[in-house]
């Protein structure tokens, strides 16, 4: 038993050593030679058959070369070689780990992972940049994307729903740069976000009422702030009888809804031919009889078509925007519309934005990795040529004397203004009356209004 414990303690250090890499590389060459000698159709072998083949060959390889490693170390190398031949090599375990959100590779020996919003460097490494490139091409093979000097950047959706972005030389200086974003196979539900502390019951009730009442909602936030997860959760409140069309650059949304049409843009070829943009898809979507349109990320000329759709009968549409605050979100919409060639005046553009957007939900990732809704802001109209807004909720955490930070959302004591939420305001008024005043019934930590609204 003591010997087994010693092997277990030494195994991680050996797995990340140069000796491990050297033996694995030599054994890999040996296996490739043996496969060629056998003349077998290796591509048709099952994972179990490859595993048995590697185990047998590793035993003979170690004996023939008289390599001074113990049984535990032989098993480690055999396992790594099985992943190399049948899977994705050093990152296979990371791809299968549900806790891993992002895998970031900056050259063959510099790998980071994000778990629960926290980015950490790990000891996983590749033999060299050629090895890393070989694994990347294996990832890209099923989706038929080309990666070479003439096409040194690839952004693609993986078969399991994740996303991969690769940049190689000559654009990257330190070898292939790989960014893999993983997504849950079962999208987070509103109850999951509530349980995770992303928002409180009052905010959950407001968001549910807003979606059911066909308010147009934009989710604003930075990279990896949880915009897509929140959008997925909001879609749970869409009535099942409605037809939903999603439009994305790289399909990430996974809506739990019976009638969803998923559209994805297409990059152009080397000469630019075959390009299909989100703007093209959005124009076509208007001919597909959608009840709601969900744009995965608004970041280009499609903003004009989206605003027109929201203003011409496609209420209840949603999307995400990269912005640091609700006001910056509105500025960004103006800027994108200007870049897209909007021909009207500044006043007419702002009026169109104010009429189209009902709510901006700001979400962020805190320094401790937690993702929280930072504010709920309602767009109320146009005043003195400025888009008028009112903040309904603001994230104001409380720090205890022990230094612990406790989540808290402060209600600013304002009812939603939108006529779409008349029924919701009535419920709030009744609750306030029962509680003896508005503050007691609608406070940041008061009782929830969940359970659904017939609006």
From TrEMBL:
It comes from Paraburkholderia megapolitana. Pfam families: T2SSE. This is Pilus assembly protein CpaF. It comes from the Bacteria. InterPro entries: P-loop_NTPase, T2SS/T4SS_dom, T4SS_GSP_E_ATPase. CDD domains: VirB11-like_ATPase. GO terms for molecular function: ATP hydrolysis activity. SUPFAM superfamilies: P-loop containing nucleoside triphosphate hydrolases. Transmembrane segments: none annotated. PANTHER family: TWITCHING MOTILITY PROTEIN PILT, TYPE II_IV SECRETION SYSTEM ATPASE. Belongs to the GSP E family. Residues 85-363 form the Bacterial type II secretion system protein E domain.
């Amino acid at each position: 038993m003591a010997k087994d414990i010693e092997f277990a303690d030494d195994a991680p250090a050996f797995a990340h050593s140069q000796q491990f890499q050297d033996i694995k590389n030599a054994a890999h060459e040996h296996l490739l030679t043996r496969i060629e000698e056998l003349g077998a159709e290796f591509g048709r072998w099952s994972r179990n058959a490859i595993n048995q083949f590697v185990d047998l060959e590793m035993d003979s390889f170690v004996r023939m070369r008289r390599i001074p490693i113990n049984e535990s170390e032989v098993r480690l190398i055999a396992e790594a070689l099985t992943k190399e031949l049948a899977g994705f090599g050093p990152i296979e375990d990371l791809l299968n780990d549900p806790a891993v959100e992002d895998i970031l590779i900056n050259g063959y020996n510099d790998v980071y992972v994000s778990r629960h919003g926290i980015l950490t460097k790990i000891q996983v490494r590749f033999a060299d940049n050629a090895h890393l490139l070989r694994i990347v091409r294996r990832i890209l093979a099923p989706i038929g994307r080309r990666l070479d000097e003439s096409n040194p950047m690839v952004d693609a959706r993986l078969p399991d729903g994740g996303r991969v972005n690769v940049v190689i030389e000559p654009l990257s200086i330190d070898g292939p740069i790989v960014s893999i974003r993983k997504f849950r196979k079962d999208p987070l539900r509103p109850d999951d976000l509530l349980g995770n502390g992303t928002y409180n019951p009052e905010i959950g009730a407001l968001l549910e009422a807003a979606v059911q009442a066909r308010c147009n909602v934009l989710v604003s936030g930075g990279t990896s702030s949880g915009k897509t997860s929140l959008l997925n959760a909001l879609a749970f409140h869409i009535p099942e009888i409605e037809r939903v069309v999603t439009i994305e650059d790289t399909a990430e949304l996974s809506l739990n809804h019976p009638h969803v049409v998923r559209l994805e843009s297409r990059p152009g070829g080397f000469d630019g031919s075959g390009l299909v943009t989100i703007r093209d898809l959005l124009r076509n979507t208007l001919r597909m009889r959608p009840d709601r349109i969900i744009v995965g990320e608004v970041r280009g000329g499609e903003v004009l078509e989206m605003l027109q759709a929201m203003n011409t009968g496609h209420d209840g549409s949603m999307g995400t925007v990269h912005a640091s605050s609700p006001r910056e979100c509105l500025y960004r919409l103006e800027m994108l519309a200007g870049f897209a060639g909007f021909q009207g005046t500044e006043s007419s553009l702002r009026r169109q934005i104010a009429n189209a957007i009902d709510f901006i939900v700001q979400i962020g990732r805190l320094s401790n990795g937690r993702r929280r809704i930072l504010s709920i802001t309602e767009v109320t109209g146009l005043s003195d040529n400025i888009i008028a807004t009112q903040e309904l909720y603001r994230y104001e955490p409380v720090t205890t004397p022990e230094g612990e930070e406790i989540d808290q959302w402060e209600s600013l004591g304002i009812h939603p203004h939108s006529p779409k939420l008349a029924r919701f305001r009535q419920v709030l008024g009744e609750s306030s009356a029962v509680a003896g005043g508005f503050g007691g019934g609608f406070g940041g930590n008061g009782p929830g209004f969940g359970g659904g609204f017939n609006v």
